[in-house]
Design brief:
The complex is a heterotrimer. By secondary structure, chain A is an alpha+beta fold. Chain A has helices spanning 39-43, 50-54, 78-82, 93-102, and strands spanning 12-13, 29-33, 88-92. Chain A has a two-stranded antiparallel sheet. Chain A starts with 11 loop residues before the first strand and ends with a helix. Chain B has a single domain, classed as 3-Layer(aba) Sandwich (Pyruvate-ferredoxin Oxidoreductase, domain 3), CATH 3.40.920. A seven-stranded mixed sheet of chain B has the order 2-3-1-4-5-6-7. By secondary structure, chain C is of the alpha/beta class. Helices cover 40% and strands 19% of the residues of chain C. In chain C, helix 7 (140-157) links the parallel strand 6 and strand 7 (161-166). The longest helix of chain C is centred in the middle third of the chain and has 30 residues, at 226-255. Classes of the chains: A alpha+beta, B alpha/beta, C alpha/beta. At the A-C interface, strand 1 of A face helix 7, strand 9, strand 10 and helix 9 of C. Bound molecules: iron/sulfur cluster (2 copies). One iron/sulfur cluster binds at residues 33, 38-40, 48-51, 66, 83, 85, 87-88 of chain A.
């Protein structure tokens, strides 16, 4: 073990939302899940959860209806690419902003 | 005034790659160290070594620790493992006046006169076979001639260290070769004075 | 106290690594380092050493394997020389930035081109800015003792350590040394645990893309950005000098040897002229110093530098305060500028009141012989000229023993 007088700063990170900062601000497109095709949502059973497993930022929850933490979702689209039933679509974030404006 | 370098006995070994000069020098280094010389440094030729090509090995012996590791340029003694090397290399290069040339040769000592130096010869190749070694093993035998001429280390100490170094490789025959050569070594002083051998 | 033995410098290094109970050895053979790796692989094959020997296809991979092993909390060792060291250069920076306590012996050899298997210090000097601690041994006893101390240092400060010793002059030369006994070594060098040892229980990503700015991690703890991490490496490298001195004291208490871990001065106390050198050449200078004092009445001393990185600026500058002339002899340089060590010493002296006149000599590149006689003559001439009519500070190095 290091001598207690030494801090030994290294770059080590435990993966989890926010480990690389407020990554939500990087997003151009956001993933939107169609719960009518999503396997766990449709069957009411814990199954699939590939989006939870493969999201590089750990921002998808492992719930019957998977939830995405948009504060940290960087919009990479891996979840949409990997979903076996194409339940996730990538939608331009701008659409949501415009929607907010028109309300 | 004596400086640190002048208290070091410098021995240069001339052999051929694969002939075992390094092992011989190491045995003498061990024997010298066990006999009370606190400083021994043995260094092979720096660089690549090719089997059969002439090579040299340096051995420095001193009563105190040796700090200068530079290769020997002015030896007190040169040991020549095979007299054919005399045709290829000037073994006397840098040899101190009155220094020893220890030579393995089948020829009589009078055939190897080096003005200004002392010579010790023995037919180490033949005596090695007599001791029970394969023909051409000369590195242990010649240690006997070095011991006899230099008087630096007792022949028993040399023979003991040969036996230790050659454990599992005919230790007794190798030690015997050194003893036989010790007894057979002929010495000649060609210092320019009387030439009586 | 164990009995002294006579062996080569490379075998001395391998024995130290065996005593240190290194657990992973990954190395690629290169002259003049080869006998170290051969000896270690023999020891492992014979069951005399409980370690994994990883045969790799290059020095770059050798260091990568050591990085992996050390990251998993395993004591790792490698050795190399010359172009092999340069081939691992990228991984050297990585090992230091990752704060991995790897120990490596560098058997110093010239760098090609042109190809040379002979000794100089350019390999180590060229890697002085990698963040590795660099120490230089002068004889076989120091190779053994420094290698053991290097493991202790690396594991206390979490910075990798390079133990340098001269190719051929030390690696292939035989001399007596005392191998420390295993029991005392175990007491001196306890088992190693890495701060971030990888385990499946606590998954971590190590040294991934690290942003320029500090950040809050998942637990809300502020984590340094690249610059903070590198600043910490620099600071803690500096503090390692003190730890190296403490380790030397512990070693002395157990083994009765040591006492000059950073600089090793010989007859420097009253010296008007102090020579500074590293490695075996510093020991060779002891003979020259004795002769200059005895035959010529010149008050000369030799200061051997044992630790080159971190550079012990204050220790050196203070040791040179009463000298009038400092002669820096070295086997490596910063091409187009001056001797690397010379430049370092000059900058170390800048803040000090006494700034002795400095002289730079380059010697022994690519194995060019360094006859003791020529060291004596150059020193004698330099002393006689400069002590009478001090010449202006001239930075251009003087090359010893040129033949063209
Ligand atoms: S990958 Fe697709 S189907 Fe699977 S849990 Fe995620 S959204 Fe549902
Ligand atoms: S797009 Fe999908 S995979 Fe990418 S960060 Fe967002 S949730 Fe994770």
């Amino acid at each position: 073990m290091p001598d207690p007088r030494f801090k030994v700063l290294t770059s080590a990170s435990t993966s989890g939302p926010g480990d690389a900062g407020r990554t939500g601000s990087w997003r151009v497109e956001r993933p939107v899940i169609d719960m009518s095709s999503c396997i766990p949502a449709k069957t009411g059973k814990h199954a699939c959860h590939l989006c939870w497993l493969l999201c590089p930022d750990n921002v998808v929850s492992k719930e019957i209806e998977p939830a995405i933490d948009l504060e940290y979702c960087k919009g990479c689209g891996i979840c949409a690419q990997e979903c076996p039933v194409q339940a996730i679509s990538m939608v331009p974030d701008a659409d949501f902003l415009e929607g907010a404006d028109s309300e | 005034m004596q400086s640190a370098t002048e208290q070091i006995i410098q021995i240069r070994w001339h052999g051929r790659g694969g002939q075992g000069a390094i092992t011989a020098a190491k045995v003498v280094a061990e024997a010298a160290f066990r006999s009370g010389y606190g400083g021994v440094v043995m260094a092979p030729t720096f660089g690549t070594e090719r089997r059969g090509a002439p090579v040299t090995t340096s051995l420095k012996i001193s009563h105190s620790k040796i700090y200068d590791l530079s290769p020997i340029t002015t030896p007190d003694i040169v040991v020549v493992l095979d007299h054919m090397i005399l045709h290829e290399v000037d073994v006397t290069a840098g040899l101190k006046p009155g220094g020893w040339i220890i030579l393995n040769t089948p020829r009589p000592v009078e055939k190897h006169l080096f003005p200004g130096y002392r010579t010790a010869v023995a037919d180490v190749t033949r005596l090695g076979v007599e001791a029970g070694l394969r023909k051409g093993i000369v590195n242990t035998g010649i240690i006997g001639a070095l011991g006899r001429a230099s008087g630096l280390i007792d022949i028993e100490a040399l023979a003991d260290n040969i036996a230790v170094e050659f454990a599992g490789r005919k230790p007794d025959a190798n030690a015997m070769a050194a003893r036989l050569v010790y007894d057979a070594t002929l010495m000649f002083d060609n210092m320019g004075g009387s030439t009586d051998a | 106290m164990s009995n002294p033995i006579i062996e080569s410098g490379n075998v001395a290094a391998a024995m130290a690594v065996q005593l240190a109970r290194a657990e992973v050895i990954a190395a690629y053979p290169i002259t003049p380092q080869t006998p170290v790796t051969e000896k270690l692989s023999e020891l492992i094959a014979a069951g005399k050493m409980d370690a994994e020997y990883v045969a790799v296809e290059s020095e770059h991979s050798a260091m990568a394997v050591c990085i992996g092993a050390a990251s998993a909390g395993v004591r790792a060792f490698t050795a190399t020389s010359s172009n092999g060291l340069l081939y691992m250069s990228e991984q050297l920076h990585w090992a230091a930035g990752a704060r991995l306590p790897i120990v490596m012996c560098v058997v110093n050899r010239a760098i090609g081109a042109p190809w040379s298997v002979w000794n100089d210090h350019q390999d180590a000097i060229s890697q002085r800015d990698t963040g590795w601690i660099q120490i230089f041994a002068k004889d076989h006893q120091e190779i053994v003792d420094m290698t053991l101390k290097a493991f202790r240092l690396a594991e206390l400060v979490h910075i990798p350590v390079m133990v340098n010793y001269d190719g051929y002059y030390l690696s292939h030369t035989y001399m007596p040394f005392e191998p420390p006994d295993a029991e005392h070594v175990d007491a001196f060098l306890p088992a190693y645990t890495y701060k971030h040892a990888l385990t499946p229980e606590r998954p971590e990503s190590l040294n991934t893309v690290t942003l320029p700015d500090a950040r809050l991690d998942v637990d809300g703890i502020k984590r340094g950005g690249y610059m903070d991490i590198r600043h910490n490496l620099h600071e803690e490298m500096g503090k390692s000098i003190e730890v190296w001195e403490e380790i030397d004291q512990e070693f002395q208490a157990l083994f009765g040897r040591g006492g000059h871990p950073v600089i090793d001065p010989y007859r420097c106390d009253d010296a008007d002229v102090v020579i500074v050198a590293m490695g075996s050449m510093a020991n060779q200078f002891r003979v020259v110093v004795d002769r200059l004092r005895q035959n010529d009445g010149l008050k000369v001393g030799i200061l051997a530098l044992q630790m080159y990185r971190p550079f012990p600026s204050a220790i050196i500058a203070e040791a040179l305060q009463s000298a009038r002339h400092v002669m820096v002899y070295e086997k490596g340089l910063s091409y187009g500028n001056q001797g690397a060590l010379y430049g370092d010493i000059k900058s170390a002296l800048y803040p000090y009141p006494a700034r002795p006149r400095l002289h730079n000599f380059i010697a022994g590149l690519g194995g060019r012989a360094i006859p003791t006689e020529s060291l004596y003559q150059t020193m004698k001439t330099a002393c006689e000229q400069d002590l009478q009519t001090p010449s202006a500070q001239a930075d251009a190095p003087q090359w010893i023993g040129l033949q063209l």
